[in-house]
Design goal:
The protein is α/β, with parallel strands linked by helices. The protein folds into two domains: 2-159 and 195-221, Rossmann fold, CATH 3.40.50.720; 164-194 and 225-263, Alpha-Beta Complex (UDP-galactose 4-epimerase, domain 1), CATH 3.90.25. Helices cover 33% and strands 21% of the residues. The chain has seven helices and 15 strands. It has helices at residues 10-21, 51-57, 78-96, 129-144, 170-179, 199-211, 229-240; strands at 2-5, 26-30, 41-42, 62-65, 101-107, 116-118, 151-157, 159-161, 184-186, 193-194, 196-198, 216-221, 227-228, 245-247, 261-263. A seven-stranded parallel sheet has the order 3-2-1-4-5-7-12, with helices on both faces. Strands 6-15 form a two-stranded parallel sheet. α1 packs across α6 and α3 packs parallel to α4.
């Protein structure tokens, strides 16, 4: 049985769909009671596990942990001061309950401001509070392998996109602008290079990793293909036949990302 956290999020919904496509048995946990056929248990992971939820977790042998609060506010101290220990305590409780196969999603921001192709051998140099917390969580859970018998797979996500993505993302903003009937889409100059991967491929990759039997491994979930942000946006417009013009240079570059970086994909 597979336990999925964050199942009501953008990535979580697609991971659950992939599990359903493979006829894999799963239960899901989410922090609120938002209506969804995918949510079986309600649990704020910053709080002690409810007795009934703990019992359900004891029936699971695999965890796909996607939940993370406070995004997209990458610089907020909340990630370090509150979220980090809440995440660690929850994962440790799952391990103590007998879950042996742990897959956790990290972030490409763990690499910090380093440019070019980034492999899992590249040293992490996190810059934002969010990335620091993720990097610390990875190391803390890895250290638990000195004390408990379980497999750990850490999956660093790069730039995921697709239908249903939040409006604060570039893809989500573009889709929202089109739905509003706007004729102009404001963006940066778009000459940054990023590594984009469609959500369907990301969900498949995460499930594939969760089903592998590696005792410990770090993965880059990436395409390996650097793509200019402007080219990415133009491709989405062309593929969907959107009638919208681009106003480039309206926004400055985010100061928490390098200008050009992409991942070296990890073979499962």
């Amino acid at each position: 049985m597979i336990l999925v956290t964050g199942a009501n999020g953008f990535i979580g919904k697609n991971v659950v769909k992939e599990l359903q496509n493979r006829s894999l048995s799963y239960i899901t946990l989410n922090r609120n009671s938002q209506a969804s056929d995918n949510i079986h248990f309600i649990q704020d992971i910053s709080q002690p596990l409810h007795v009934e939820n703990l019992q359900a977790i004891k029936n699971c042998d695999t965890l796909i942990h996607l939940a993370w609060n406070g995004l997209p506010h990458y610089k907020e101290l909340y990630h370090i001061e509150e979220n980090l220990m809440a995440q660690y305590n929850f994962i440790k409780a799952c391990i103590q309950a007998g879950v042996k196969n742990i897959t956790i999603t990290g972030t490409c921001l763990e690499y910090g401001l380093q440019e070019g192709e980034l492999s899992t051998d590249t040293a992490t140099k996190p810059f934002t509070s969010y990335a620091i917390a993720k990097d610390c969580l990875h190391k803390m859970v890895h250290n638990l392998q000195e004390h408990f018998d379980f497999n750990l797979k850490w999956v660093r996500l790069f730039y995921v996109y697709g239908e249903g993505q939040a409006k604060h993302t570039l893809y989500g903003q573009l889709i929202d602008a089109v739905h509003q009937g706007l004729k102009v889409f404001n963006m940066s100059t778009g000459d940054q290079q990023r590594d984009y991967l469609h959500i369907s491929k990301v969900a498949k990759y995460i499930v594939d990793v969760s089903q592998s039997q590696q005792p410990y491994k770090v993965y880059n979930c990436s395409s390996g293909n650097p793509l200019r942000v402007l080219d990415f946006v133009n491709t989405i417009i062309k593929e969907n036949k959107f009638n919208i013009e681009l106003n480039t240079g309206y926004y400055s570059y985010p100061d928490y990302e390098p200008k050009s970086f992409w991942g070296k994909p990890t073979i499962i």
